[in-house]
Amino acid sequence: MSLRVLFFCSFCFFSFGLEGKTYFQMSDECLKAQEFIFSLKFDEADKVLKEEALKSPDNIAVPWLSESVIFLKIFISEDKDLYAKLTPEWNKLIENTKKTNFNNAWYRFILSDMHLHKGLISLKFNETVSAGSNLKSSYKYLKENKKMFSTFLPDNKNYGLLSCAFSSVPAKYQWLVKIMGFTGDMNAGLKEIETYLNSFQTSKEHQWMKVEAAFIYGMVQHHLNKNAGAAWKMIEPYTKNYKSNLLLNYMRATMAGYAGRNDEMIEILSQRPAYTPNYPFYFMDYLLGLAKMRRLDNDADIYFKIFTVKYKGRNYVKSAYRYLSWITLIKNDRTTAATYYSLCRKNGAAIIEEDKQAEKEAVENILWPVDLVKARLLFDGKYFDKSMAILNTVSESSLGNIRFKLEYNYRKAKIYDEKSEYTTAISLYQQVVEAGKDQTYYYAAYSALQLAFIYEKLGKKDMALKYFKKARDDFDKNEEYRNSIEQKAKAGIKRLDK
Is residue 298 part of a domain? Predict the structure, then answer.
């Protein structure tokens, strides 16, 4: 779900009306609409914005906020029919905003925001050509603003995101880099976002844009920098009102999960506000099911069932059915577990990495040993001692399938890694690399990546580079998490090659 320090001018609200009739002003009504938007109360926001558009037809803030409503409606629902229905209105908003030709920093920032949103949604629906075109347009407006209004700090939100994202683009998306002519720099991108977050902009529109920027910052720190602690530290102060705001609840719970705060993630999601009737955020049921499953709670399946029945999107559906298979397997119901694998094959789309792996596993239809499933889930919840205690009851020789053997050693290596017992972790990771190098599973490639991270921590740059490159280049048969592995490896190589 995408996804806004000294600004050159500070006012209680912003009003620019020097170029003809068009101006930017966050009036009281616009601020009220913005509050509704970030509370996911879209019908209320729409009503306020329609009235404001009649009263202030030349205020460019109104189409900016209206476009954010459309973006978030589609982002949280992933409803293909809603996407098709709202796209004409979305395109019209963008085109009408362009036609104002308002020669001001807010004009280009707003257009960059609109195109960035359009690009992110296009990626969700696997429309890569549209995504490339919109991301290129977003970058174009940002680049123009950087030249014309270099001290305009709201740009840092989007510029920082694109700089981080394009710092380590997987091979299959290299055409995007060529189209944009932009390679990106993660460290520079993070600094851009930090500069905006550390600014003295405290008026209400900046408060919400800073929340968005903090979430972007956290996602980059976790996904590319492998720094979940920094991600949590950044988002925590911005999301203290998580009990009354659904979007803040989602952001806080997501970062808590990344930071290994699984019990806290469950507590946060259990206190989430009620969904708005017309725009329920059922992905949060998926997240709660995930967190409860990782603690081996008996009721985890309830939330995955809610998600698979009520969610209208395509992403994470296969993943949810896979987890339902695991849960029923733990309950020793192998027949139902096989049924959920069948549903995994038939439903959803294999676009994101989680769904690709879920479908691959469902097609293989190999039911896991219960103890391995429990150990993996406990590990994912950061219950390392409990996970290791279960693994210690398993004999590797009793595991007949190569995938199970790889999972067994990989999971033990990960636990030793998390406990900073690097000598043992390195030995086990190397064992997995050798045993799994010719398999279609992710274990060998990810083990090489983890070895690189360990050597980076230990200050052994040459060894770290060796394994980052190995993770990127040496596992052609691997079919799982390829983009994620490549992106993390490229980010690591860039860090160390400087």
Answer: no
